Amino acid sequence: MVNFMVYVAANCVNKIIKLALDGILEEVCGILSGKKIADDIYITEIYPVENVKHSEKSFFMNISEQFSASKDMRSKGLILLGNFHSHPKNTAIPSETDMKFAYSNDAIYLIISLLNRRKPDIKVYKIINNTYIEEELLLI
């Protein structure tokens, strides 16, 4: 059931794909920002953040980079919408770890799978009460 639409700027998707492919040996991660208009979400900027775990199975974002991203978002009038990360060797479905560490029912979680490097799979979810709900993602 789609409750709202998630629109993402094509340049953001291209950046996420490049980051994921360049960092294929570990999960890459970052912050999604933009605006909410009515019930819809518009992702217009991403902030890559170092995965301090340097793991192919999990991520933990560098805290100082998160603060820098937050400061930049505020200066541009953008809001934190959620985060993105890659699954280098798994599908674009939230893992148990992803669901365990989901920090807000309002956040958007974008996952890119690199199982097919020529055509990465990108999906977006809400995670509520340890359950994921896939939302519709449209490029703008």
Low-confidence stretches: none
Radius of gyration: 14 Å
SSE-based structural type? alpha/beta
| Helical fraction | 10-25%
The largest pleated sheet is described as: 7 strands, mixed, barrel
Mean of residue pLDDT values:
93
Describe the protein's architecture and organization:
With 140 residues, this protein is an alpha/beta fold. The chain has 3 helices and 7 strands; from the N terminus they run βαββαβαβββ. Strands 1-3-2-4-5-6-7 form a 7-stranded mixed barrel. It is globular and about 35 Å long. The two termini are 22 Å apart. The relative contact order is 0.23.
Labels describing this entry:
7-stranded mixed β-barrel, 140 residues, 23% helix, alpha/beta, 39% strand
Give me a quick take on this structure.
With 140 residues, the protein is α/β, with parallel strands linked by helices.
